């Protein structure tokens, strides 16, 4: 039983908050531990490692003199190094003056350490986020395996079909009399598009060494395999496993028919007839305008209700090697980074809506939605969010890690750090920018459709 998938059903809003806090706490801990451990390796002493902000509810001091604490507001965290005035690593002038004459004590402070040590310590937070994402994606890939190249039936899905003679392990050789190419072949996608749009199909399969002709369901029925968080379908309480058997009173049997009807709705209410475990339900919902990334980096805006479709059966898999899983984890993480940067650039230029930028409410809702779809979905969300947090912290904004790295780059070129006065002004500007961005994103959560 998938316990994580049951949590949001058990308590509604409370479990959305729980899912958000769990996801954020994991990511923040990874990020701050990166700062802490690389700082320690670099000879910089950490005074405080805090998970959360505000009043401290638990603390202990280790043998190195670092206070480990959990604070009451679990929406972030920080490491305060020796010589820091605050969580943003501003310089504590009095503390630094007190150790000026002691070379050993000065070396143990953040602001008295060599440039390489400071830069490595600051960069470690985002790097640890990226490494964590890669490892988590790799673990998910290892757990699920890789799809067999020959289209092969894995677990059958429940469908309202008259005849389904397919069995797990069947290798599908032909559909409707046409040979099935390998999944890795460029012709596989066009082949699937050419499959007849009928409720029942003729299959030729290899089963136990013998070729058989069997009847089976449409390979792409209007089946709900996944739900996009905060979408019309999610808000209408559609479930994974639902089958849409009718749109506006007209029967459908292929997912493409659902997609066509939704796109043609122009945002008007769409009446869906839904099959769920043998029962028929009626749902009415309105599509939302969605900016969708394309392979060439551009975006198209379409009407979507937020249903992720899939085949009439799960694809059979085979074990994946560790190296392949790690390399796929790198590719997945890199794709999130490039996609995020592309989306941000399109928002800045006005090519897509600023509503694509979510704030804490939207992220919390997404956390709960992904938790409701199971452990794998929730872990994948954590991996995606970890990459996003690492990337955001690398932006060259004072008060963020990227801003500190810009200061260090200036110091490396000019052979001296920016003046304390300039740093205070720049840090104030950076904090204002971060706060403005947070308020803007929160406004999106509240006012965007």
Distance between the termini: 35 Å
Q: State Rg.
A: 26 Å
Helix/strand/pairing class, anyone? Answer: alpha+beta
Q: What proportion of the residues form beta strands (DSSP E)?
A: 15-25%
Low-confidence stretches: 1-11
Residues in helices, as a percent range? 40-55%
Major sheet strand order: 6-5-7-8
The DSSP helix count reads 13
Mean pLDDT score: 91
Main pleated-sheet profile: 4 strands, antiparallel
Coarse shape: elongated
Beta-strand segment tally: 18
Can you describe what's shown?
The protein has 449 residues and is of the alpha+beta class. The chain contains 13 helices and 18 strands. It has helices spanning 3-11, 13-41, 93-98, 103-107, 115-144, 188-194, 232-235, 255-264, 322-349, 360-372, 375-393, 401-414, 420-447; strands at 46-61, 67-81, 146-147, 153-156, 171-175, 178-179, 200-207, 210-217, 226-227, 243-247, 250-251, 269-276, 279-286, 288-293, 299-304, 307-308, 313-315, 317-318. Strands 6-5-7-8 form a four-stranded antiparallel beta sheet, with no helix packed on it. α1 (3-11) crosses α2 (13-41), α2 (13-41) packs across α5 and α5 runs antiparallel to α11. It is elongated and about 85 Å long. The model is unreliable at 1-11 (pLDDT under 50).
Could you provide a short overview of the structure?
With 449 residues, the protein is of the alpha+beta class. It contains 13 helices and 18 strands.
């Amino acid at each position: 039983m998938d316990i994580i998938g049951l949590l949001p059903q058990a308590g509604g809003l409370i479990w959305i908050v729980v899912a958000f806090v769990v996801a954020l706490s994991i990511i923040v801990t990874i990020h701050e531990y990166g700062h802490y451990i690389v700082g320690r390796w670099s000879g910089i002493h950490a005074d405080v490692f805090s998970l959360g902000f505000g009043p401290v509810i638990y603390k202990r001091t280790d043998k190195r003199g670092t206070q480990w604490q959990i604070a009451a507001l679990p929406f972030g965290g920080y490491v305060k190094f020796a010589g820091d005035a605050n969580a943003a690593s501003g310089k504590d002038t009095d503390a630094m003056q007190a150790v000026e004459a002691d070379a050993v004590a000065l070396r143990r402070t953040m602001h008295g350490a060599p440039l390489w040590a400071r830069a490595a310590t600051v960069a470690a937070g985002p790097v640890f986020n990226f490494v964590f994402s890669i490892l988590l994606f790799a673990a998910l890939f290892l757990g699920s395996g890789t799809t067999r190249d020959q289209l092969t039936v894995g677990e059958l899905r429940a469908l309202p079909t008259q005849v389904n003679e397919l069995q797990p392990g069947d290798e599908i050789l032909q559909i409707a009399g046409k040979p099935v190419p390998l999944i890795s072949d460029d012709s596989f996608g066009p082949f699937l598009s050419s499959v007849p749009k009928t409720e029942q199909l003729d299959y030729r399969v290899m089963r136990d060494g013998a070729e058989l002709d069997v009847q089976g369901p449409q390979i792409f029925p209007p089946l709900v395999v996944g739900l996009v968080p905060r979408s019309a379908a999610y808000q209408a309480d559609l479930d994974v496993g639902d089958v849409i058997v009718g749109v506006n009173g007209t029967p459908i049997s292929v997912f493409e028919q659902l997609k066509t009807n939704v796109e043609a709705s122009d945002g008007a209410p769409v009446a869906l007839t839904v099959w769920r475990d043998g029962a028929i339900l009626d749902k009415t919902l309105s599509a939302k305008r969605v900016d969708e990334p394309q392979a060439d980096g551009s975006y198209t805006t379409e009407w979507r209700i937020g249903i992720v479709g899939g085949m009439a059966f799960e694809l059979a898999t085979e074990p994946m090697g560790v190296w392949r899983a790690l390399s796929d984890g790198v590719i997945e993480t890199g794709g999130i980074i490039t996609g995020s940067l592309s989306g941000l650039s399109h928002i800045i230029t006005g090519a897509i809506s600023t509503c694509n930028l979510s704030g804490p409410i939207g992220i919390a809702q997404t956390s709960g939605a992904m938790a409701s779809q199971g452990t794998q979905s929730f872990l994948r969300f954590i991996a995606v969010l970890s990459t996003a947090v690492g990337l955001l912290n690398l932006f060259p904004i004072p008060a963020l890690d990227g801003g500190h790295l810009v200061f260090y780059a200036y110091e490396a070129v000019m052979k001296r750090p920016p003046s304390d006065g300039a740093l205070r002004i720049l840090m104030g500007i950076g904090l204002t920018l971060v706060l403005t961005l947070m308020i803007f994103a929160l406004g999106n959560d509240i006012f965007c459709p």
